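Lecture 7, part 2: worked example. A protein chain together with phosphoric acid mono(formamide)ester.
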Amino acid sequence: MSTRHFLTLTDLTPDELGALIARAGELKAAHRRGDRQVRYPGKVMAMLFEKSSTRTRASFEAAWTHLGGHSMFLSPRDIQLGRGETVEDSARVLSRMVDVLVVRTAAHERLELLAANSTVPVINALTDRFHPCQLLADILTWTERHGDIRGRTAAFIGDGNNVCQSWIKAARLFGFELRIAAPAGYRPEPELLATHADCVQVTDDPAAAAAGADVVVTDVWASMGQEDESAARQAAFAGYQVDPALMTKAAPAAIFMHCLPAHRGEEVAAAVIDGPQSVVWDEAENRLHAQKALLELLLG
Ligand code: CP
Ligand code: NVA
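Predicted complex, written out as structure tokens:
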């Protein structure tokens, strides 16, 4: 059987994703009981991170430790990849030594190249186009609050970035409606929007997107690697802050989500992210449980 990778959400079927979310809930309950199942003793995870991370790194390392494995964090500053060894060669070598590769990089094509040369599962820990692991935790969090999310509505307010683009894929796979409010020039890839037109709408009106929504979600206006565009982006996204007034447009039981790190006073008001509708700390914790379920699915 060929090696299964998780580069985007569509690498799993809707049935597999549903089962993964259910399993993540079971693993969370087990974790709460102090029940740690050592499923992968002696197995090794290599974590190749070409960008910064708090949640993704910590949750994968903690998850793998709970499961009994060993993880090695490989920064390009320390390994030959940073001195010009190709990703293909790095993948060929590492996959002879380890059982799973978790990779955070900029260009999605670089991740695809790495996966094409790996004989062990490769997991996307964020690229410029997609952040599928984030969505596993987000869907788990949403499901915990609202039960079956099929037919419900999410509003993504802000930049049509890697997180937003994974929300688009999630809308189709998990059967909900997604409304995106983003200014022209900062919208998701047109082809992705075109192929999801049945479940995703785009507007430049945050209030229209949020109207009656069950979940309101946002992310930073300038992602990693876009620091130089910060001033232009602050101007472009003026009026797109998720603040208490915008939250009143959503459903009364609406929740607020943010993958973090957040910039209070920019994409979200402190009163929202630190307020009663915010589920961001559960969302962060759920990275741990969802990724354990993902590792089980990929590694058996
Ligand atoms: N949400 C998320 O992926 O955070 P990190 O960049 O800290 O991993
Ligand atoms: N869009 C953000 C997500 C960080 C988890 C970024 O790429 O920097």
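The chain is about 40% helix and 15% strand. The domain at 134-283 is CATH 3.40.50.1370 (Rossmann fold). Keep this in mind for problem set question 3.
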